[in-house]
């Protein structure tokens, strides 16, 4: 690494080694030898002890003892078996350190002047600890980059969000970051695009608006800069949540924050805006990332209603401020941050939010061909009677949503049992298992979306939706 300020970002996780409890990782920022960290070597490193939950910054000059420049014990973000995102901005004489978007140390004096010689930067483990690293990124900072605050001593502080009025203490911020990592960051939602029947136009629009910008950010710059907010709207049960979750599963590299209104409101009543702010902060630290808000109308309905609670109004304002922060960001070479939201009552959304969710994709009731594919998909493990004509069944299911079609299939798969089970002996019941079932629209499941509802979505789509 050439001399000069740089930033190092890495997601690291540590697990105990065989027969040793050690879980220690070093982020080497300036090191003249990589063979070992013995007294002969000259280094500066961030030491993360996942076993004792301590963060330290250490410096050692050749033939001198190791100096601890900074130590923070009881760091809740260091949890065995969990990834933590570390960001270091190394200026040679001072450094900034943050963990999962929470600023831990700012302007920490290091008393090291880099002589210009090439030194090593990287990750090392202690003893038999085992470390997993993903998304390692090293980037030069502008030569004239100066630390954010002129200060001669190190401080532990929380970086304020954009124009936010919410005050949060460092330990609160750390707790929130832990909650986010534990409850909201999703690894695998197990929904694939192949599982979703039909909706070809919506899949194409999502691919262009969300997936491609994440996979090839360099192409989506300038006029082609990606949409920062994408809304999927349409009648209930049409696959909006499924589509959003499928996005999470199709690219490995992104962090998907599943922010359901239940997590954001019930558990954190009164604290929601703090959690929201921490969410955006963490998402920024882990780009490329998607913040997914399911049923966003329940979180951000129109402001100013008589029954509106003060906390809810504050939450909405905080959300809009963060969305503005996203929209005003110019090109982001490091990766993108999106808000992806779903709603089945888009007309209830706050107008200011509607404007910020720039791309609005209509997820309609499935067409006949899509209904055939859904029937095939839902009934793939069921033995059907020979005269079952799925296209004919699909043609009878007009106005049925995906969820309704699934319900029809469930009801139908139960029907032979209903007809035959009455009064049978256990032996006769066993005999039933080899018989097929047949599907019909026998009237026991009605469509859940009325003509009027559909008309309302189409009208909203004409007025505010994207093509
Ligand atoms: N296009 C589809 N392909 C396959 N299954 C579907 C489809 N649409 C809906 N389903 C079925 O319906 C269920 C509900 O879908 P989902 O939760 O995505 O609906 P939604 O549009 O988010 O509804 P809501 O607006 O009520 O939240 C899914 O679990 C799935 O089984
Ligand atoms: Mg849903």
From TrEMBL:
One GO molecular-function entry: ATP hydrolysis activity
The keyword Magnesium is annotated on this UniProt entry: no
Domain (AAA+ ATPase): residue spans on this chain: 226-367
Domain of life: Eukaryota
Keywords, ordered alphabetically: ATP-binding, Nucleotide-binding
Signal sequence coordinates: none
A GO cellular component annotation in the UniProt record: microtubule cytoskeleton
InterPro entries found in the cross-reference section: AAA+_ATPase, AAA_lid_3, ATPase_AAA_core, ATPase_AAA_CS, MT-severing_AAA_ATPase, P-loop_NTPase
A single GO BP: microtubule severing
Keyword Transmembrane helix: no
Family to which the UniProt record says this protein belongs: Belongs to the AAA ATPase family.
UniProt protein name: Katanin p60 ATPase-containing subunit A1
Source organism of the structure: Symbiodinium microadriaticum (Dinoflagellate)
Gene that this polypeptide is encoded by: KATNA1
């Amino acid at each position: 690494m050439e001399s000069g300020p740089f930033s190092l970002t890495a997601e690291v996780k540590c697990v105990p080694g065989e027969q040793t409890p050690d879980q220690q990782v070093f982020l080497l920022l300036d090191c003249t030898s990589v063979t070992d960290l013995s007294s002969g070597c000259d280094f500066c490193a961030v030491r993360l002890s996942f076993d004792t939950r301590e963060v330290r910054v250490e410096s050692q000059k050749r033939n001198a003892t190791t100096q601890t420049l900074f130590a923070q014990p009881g760091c809740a973000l260091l949890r065995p078996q969990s990834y933590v995102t570390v960001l270091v901005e190394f200026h040679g004489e001072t450094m900034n350190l943050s963990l999962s978007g929470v600023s831990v140390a700012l302007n920490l004096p290091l008393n090291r002047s880099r002589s210009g010689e090439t030194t090593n930067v990287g990750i090392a483990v202690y003893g038999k600890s085992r470390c997993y690293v993903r998304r390692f990124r090293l980037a030069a900072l502008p030569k004239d980059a100066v630390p954010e605050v002129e200060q001669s001593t190190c401080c532990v502080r929380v970086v304020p969000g954009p124009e936010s009025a919410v005050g949060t203490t460092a330990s609160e911020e750390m707790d929130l970051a832990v909650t986010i990592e534990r409850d909201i960051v999703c690894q695998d939602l197990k929904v694939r695009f192949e599982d979703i029947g039909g909706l070809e136009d919506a899949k194409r629009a999502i691919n262009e608006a969300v997936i491609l910008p994440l996979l090839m950010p360099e192409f989506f710059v300038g006029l082609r800069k990606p949409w920062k907010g994408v809304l999927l709207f349409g009648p209930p049960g049409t696959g909006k949540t499924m589509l959003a979750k499928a996005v999470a599963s199709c690219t490995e590299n992104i962090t998907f924050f599943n922010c359901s209104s239940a997590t954001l409101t019930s558990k954190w009543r009164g604290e929601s805006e703090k959690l929201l702010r921490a969410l955006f902060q963490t998402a920024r630290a882990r780009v490329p990332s998607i913040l997914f808000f399911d049923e966003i109308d329940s979180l951000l309905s129109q402001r100013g209603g008589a029954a509106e609670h003060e906390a809810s109004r504050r939450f909405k304002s905080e959300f809009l401020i963060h969305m503005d922060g996203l929209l005003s960001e110019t090109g982001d070479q490091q990766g993108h941050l999106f808000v992806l939201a779903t709603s089945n009552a888009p007309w209830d959304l706050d107008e200011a939010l509607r404007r910020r969710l720039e791309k609005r994709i209509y997820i309609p009731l499935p067409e006949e061909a899509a209904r055939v594919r859904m029937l095939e998909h839902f009934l793939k493990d069921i033995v059907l009677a020979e005269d079952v004509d799925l296209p004919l069944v699909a043609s009878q299911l007009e106005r049925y949503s995906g969820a309704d079609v699934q319900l029809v299939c469930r009801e139908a798969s139960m029907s032979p049992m209903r007809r035959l089970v009455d009064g049978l002996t256990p032996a006769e019941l066993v005999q039933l298992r080899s018989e097929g079932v047949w599907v019909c629209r026998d009237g026991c499941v009605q469509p859940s979306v009325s003509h009027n509802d559909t008309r309302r979505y189409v009208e909203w789509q004409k007025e505010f939706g994207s093509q």
